[in-house]
Records
---
Amino acid sequence: MAKTWLITGTSSGFGKELAQIVASKQDTNLVAAARKMEDLNYLDQFDSNKIKKVIIDVTNQSEIKDAVSKAKEKFGTIDVLVNNAGLGYFSTIEESDMDQVRYMFEVNVFGLANMTNAVLPIMRTQKSGVIVNLSSALALTTLPTMGFYSATKYAVEGYADTLRQEVADLGIHVMNVEPSGARTNWSGRSSNKVVPNISDYQEFGNSIVHVSDSVTGAPGNPQKIAEVIYNQIEDNEVIPEHLPLGQFAYEGGLGNLENLISEIKSRQEISLSTDDSLLGEKYEL
Ligand SMILES: NC(=O)c1ccc[n+]([C@@H]2O[C@H](COP(=O)([O-])OP(=O)(O)OC[C@H]3O[C@@H](n4cnc5c(N)ncnc54)[C@H](OP(=O)(O)O)[C@@H]3O)[C@@H](O)[C@H]2O)c1
């Protein structure tokens, strides 16, 4: 039976690339979600029998419920959920606008959780499914002015690593994709930017001023990224838990994690000194 993919944020970037790949395959159905129906006109070139266009703002529970029920009605299942919709934010921590930061958390973290909760009952019933989260290289390492964006993606990592354990016995896989900078609208119209006013942070201003307002010259190729994501789900016996993509994710992520491992190891004595008794076979909190 054909697998059904539901992808959020298919108006542009990774979501649009992935939607076109799924739509072009014989044996996959596509539920393409966007905030505006007209943004999905590009799908009209594909077989409409295997495509359902739906409106989803991931912060809107009733749109999510309605879209998931329409998808289920048309295709009977949802086999792959791609939590792709997301925003960026460029600012030093101290100068960040907390309303904008809260909204980014609504989309990047709670929106992703809203979608997952709407689809999990279907996947639990069918005892199979894959949940793909567009995390970021900035959930493996960090950069000045990207702190609150990283915080949303680190939140996604902690959420997903826990969910994976809870649903593993139900036949449901959870894959986090951690792309490096790629040529989408993410750092353009999908990001608010606050150039530092505080003189102590002037050195970080350049990195924000030079962020393009449109598609950047970042090395990541969105089409290649979408192809890798598709192939890891459809052509791979073992679905990865993590998929770091691009040099920054690979080298920056490894460097940061190696530092963390070495720091944890160097604190072994003090770390183990704070328990009253030695740990048994299992951790107890
Ligand atoms: N490009 C990168 O360098 C990069 C690197 C690592 C991770 N990521 C992540 O990749 C994901 C996709 O971003 P992208 O790079 O493809 O950027 P993009 O081209 O700007 O696409 C972002 C998508 O998210 C949608 N979206 C924003 N807010 C939404 C909401 N409230 N509800 C539903 N959809 C919403 C946008 O829809 P509208 O058109 O309606 O605004 C758009 O379809 C994001 O989660 C981003 O954080 C990007």
Note: The chain has eight helices and nine strands.
---
Amino acid sequence: MSKKLFIETLGCAMNVRDSEHMIAELSAREGYELTDNAKEADLILINTCSVREKPVHKLFSELGGFNKIKKEGAKIGVCGCTASHLGKEIIKKAPYVNFVLGARNVSKIGEVIHRDKAVEIDIDFDESQFAFKDFRSSPYKAYINISIGCDKQCTFCIVPKTRGDEISIPADLIVAETRKAAESGAKEVFLLGQNVNNYGRRFSGEHEKINFTELLRRVSAVEGIERIRFTSPHPLHMDDEFIEEFARNPKICKSMHMPLQSGSTEILKAMKRGYGKEWFLNRAAKLREMVPDVSISTDIIVAFPGESDQDYEDTLDVMRQVRFEQIFSFKYSPRPLTEAEKMTDTVDPEIASERLSRLQAYQDTILDEITATYRGREFDVYFEELRSDGYAAGRTDNNITVKVKGSEELLGTIRRVKITEVSRLVQYGEIVA
Ligand code: SF4
């Protein structure tokens, strides 16, 4: 009988891809099969995220829960960013954990499972050219890493300490992965990196040095690929050449994630983001002008240390001017190993909560106005998922989630859909062609 693997993935798309890599390695080399029941697993992995405080706090209670229900002899491994920053502390606090594997050491999974109490968290480890076995959680969409690590030093962010310095994956490997994905039937690729439009900054070894715009051109030349998405670009590196390629290339999906973090130039300085309010507004305006149907999403942190009422109003002002289609907003929480952790001019927690709720309510009003304009319009939707309520779900080119009544034959197809019912999160429609 084959061994069973249960894996829980928290956090960002990079973690989703890391989990896919671990599943592939474990199934090809060790014969593991996936299960969604932790009780019957021979190996339980938690692929952790440390960007926010909450999931880290939850880790130990979750581990305790898994330890109680796991079958005799089953192993537990902690992987990902929290593994990188807590390292052996995890085994000290939860001695039943069998190994700890950092976010930069995913390729060692086949080896660490055989070393009890192994802690592999080397953030200088270079796996940029490691040939992972193949596994995709969706046959319709392929996640492809284009770089690992991050060279920025944003003062609130722990990622450079958990994923190490930035290294770009050679372009020929990325194009080869894209071809493989197209041959296996995926129409969409999702290029991943902490800072994708900084691509080409550093390679390990001698490789052709191209930038992200050129990489996009090469990926879009792969036959069979109809849609290209990427995350996350950095507003600082959104030069004209990049925006023009984004606008001109029909295979690039017209949705852009532009992590704002704060609308105040002063706070952006304290965050060491490398751009100010005016630059951000200028780039967003250029995008809206060149791609009228673009949808722009963003990340916002409220109540960063030192944030005054005026700084906060600047953030609302950027929201008013850009009218984001989606925001991911959070109250600032200090992360270990970051510069901001030592900042003392913290914002009163009550004020922080009030700012966050007000900002989210404001976004809701913007979103209601935006989604109201979708009613009656037609979009091309790529269907990727069958929901239990009898609906098939997919995304438009500009990242609107659309559901229609339908079954399996819709999956993997791009169909014309007329929107009949709108809401903040999902739009409903009917197929017209
Ligand atoms: S760009 Fe800044 S926020 Fe993004 S991963 Fe790098 S350090 Fe963190």
Note: Residues 150, 152, 154, 157, 159-160, 194-195, 234 surround iron/sulfur cluster (CB under 6 Å).
